[in-house]
Design goal:
6-stranded parallel β-sheet, 20% strand, alpha/beta, globular, Aldehyde Dehydrogenase, Chain A, domain 1, 2 domains, Aldehyde Dehydrogenase, Chain A, domain 2, 40% helix
Length: 471
């Protein structure tokens, strides 16, 4: 960690020296944009925002391009830092996850003006920035949430103050320094993105209440989203999910099995969209499990299921009640979790699977770890009904593997989720192997869905009466 941080710090110091930045712009450790006091961070970003409003759109495009370039160059370093600091996921998968967000988060091109003309003249609708945005980010997707949010928010013309999860504070501060470096190099102001070096729950509440914060963007659990929504500010909230995947008898079973293992085990399941439980029609259930084993799944049976449940669930969930996962095992490798119940599995094991009944707590709990319950049901309609129930109405993400258009349509309507993936792994819904753009703030509670630059802008209408209508 020290060598990695030193590498980043050296780059920042070179930029500071070349840009002749005043000492008031940086802290004593020369981490651009990182402050010991939240109010100082907000005030610095407020000054930067006012400077940013004077900068041309072309310069803004160069800033976004340089953010992408710099983030890509340090992708592996940041991925390893995040893994070492948080202990979550797989750093190799984080590189892939970061690349997806860096390359496919929409930039300035997403801020598109609209025009209307009729006999009364012309109306122009433009997207304007909110100002200084307050952003709370999680430990699970610590690097890419900051990078992706920064791309979208800055592309929309905003400044942003981050309150990272405390368990990811070091890598988050390093990212903020890098982002500032990229912004300054491309002609932008210092402190356009900021954070504090010791984020806490209290600093998050202070951020929500600060008078110079225009809106809040919160990526986290239900408690922090609820707190933000009571702040009196506009909130874009990305809350929890418990994404089910349904497999019916018409599905391409070998492909479905691979897709489920790939999606559910990606970064050890810490992404909120990852498959959390499988509901499969009984006529293909055994075949699905056998195919999953070919792609890195290991099946737990008998007493092993009881032991793994007691290990990873601290608050048993059930119908109508979401349980809670044991944080010790969140984001850990499958073989590490298996060893904790006295079971040695190959280190290549990506996912632990276990067949359980529909009332089992694993089905009703967002585990955020590579432990996958499988429920067999009599038919696809029963599967869809159960999927709706165990998703808890979060309207976050759901998957279905089927070649029956009628049933695919039925489940899509019944789930009513922000993301619904047909015949693919969960991450296809964020543009990896699927069409569309990426983002790691998926605002289901507040309805914006997969956020983008235009999400972080406000609509502004300008009407010119009786002129410029030339037809």
């Amino acid at each position: 960690m020290d060598n990695l941080e030193q590498n980043i710090r050296q780059l920042v110091e070179e930029v500071i020296k070349s840009m002749n930045l005043p000492s008031t712009s940086i802290n004593k450790e020369k981490k651009l944009g990182v402050f010991s006091n939240l109010n100082m961070a907000v005030e610095a970003s407020d000054i930067a925002f006012k400077e940013f409003t004077k900068i041309s759109l072309e310069t803004r495009k160069k800033i976004i391009a340089n953010i992408r370039k710099t983030s890509s160059e340090y992708n592996e370093i940041l991925s390893k830092m995040a893994h070492e600091e948080t202990g979550l996921g797989r750093w190799e998968d984080k590189i892939i996850k970061n690349t997806l967000g860096i390359d496919k988060t929409p930039g300035v091109e997403d801020i598109v003006p609209e025009t209307y003309t009729d006999d009364n003249g012309l109306t122009l609708i433009e997207r304007a920035p909110f100002g200084v945005i307050g952003s709370i980010t999680p430990s699970t997707n610590s690097t890419i949430t900051i990078i992706s949010n920064a791309i979208g928010m800055v592309a929309a013309g905003n400044a942003v103050v981050f309150n990272p999860h405390p368990s990811a504070k070091k890598v988050s501060a390093s990212i903020i320094s890098l982002l500032n470096t990229a912004i300054i190099e491309a002609g932008g102001p210092v402190n356009l993105v900021t954070c504090i070096d010791e984020p806490t729950i209290e600093s998050a509440k202070e951020l929500m209440a600060h008078k110079k914060i225009a809106i809040m963007v919160v990526t986290g659990g239900p408690a922090v989203v609820k707190t933000a929504m009571n702040s009196g500010k506009k909130v874009i909230g990305a809350g929890p999910g418990n994404p089910p995947v349904v497999v019916d008898e018409t599905a391409n079973i070998p492909k479905a099995a691979k897709d489920i293992v790939d999606g559910a085990s990606f970064d050890n399941n810490v992404i909120c969209i990852c498959e959390k439980e499988v509901i499969v029609v009984e006529s293909v259930a055994d075949r699905l499990k056998e195919e999953m084993k070919k792609h890195g799944a290991f099946e737990l049976t008998g007493d092993q299921i009881k032991k793994i449940t007691e290990l990873v669930i601290c608050d048993p969930g059930g119908p109508g009640h979401e349980g809670a996962a044991e944080k010790t095992y969140v984001g850990k490798n499958a073989d590490f979790i298996a060893k904790a119940i006295g079971l040695n599995v190959p280190s290549t094991t990506r996912l632990l699977i276990c067949e359980v009944d529909r009332n089992h707590p694993l089905v009703w709990t967002e585990q955020l770890m590579p432990v996958m319950p499988i429920v067999r049901v009599k038919d696809v309609d029963t599967a869809i009904d159960l999927a709706v129930d165990c998703e808890h109405g979060f309207r976050h993400t759901a998957m279905m593997h089927s070649l029956n258009i009628e049933k695919l349509t039925k489940m899509a309507k019944a789930m009513n989720c922000s993301i619904f993936i047909k015949n693919g792994p969960s991450y296809a819904g964020l543009g990896k192997g699927g069409a569309g753009f990426a983002s790691f703030t998926i605002a289901s509670p507040t309805g914006e869905g997969v956020t983008r630059a235009r999400t972080f802008s406000r609509e502004r209408r300008c009407t010119l009466v009786d002129y410029l209508r030339i037809i």
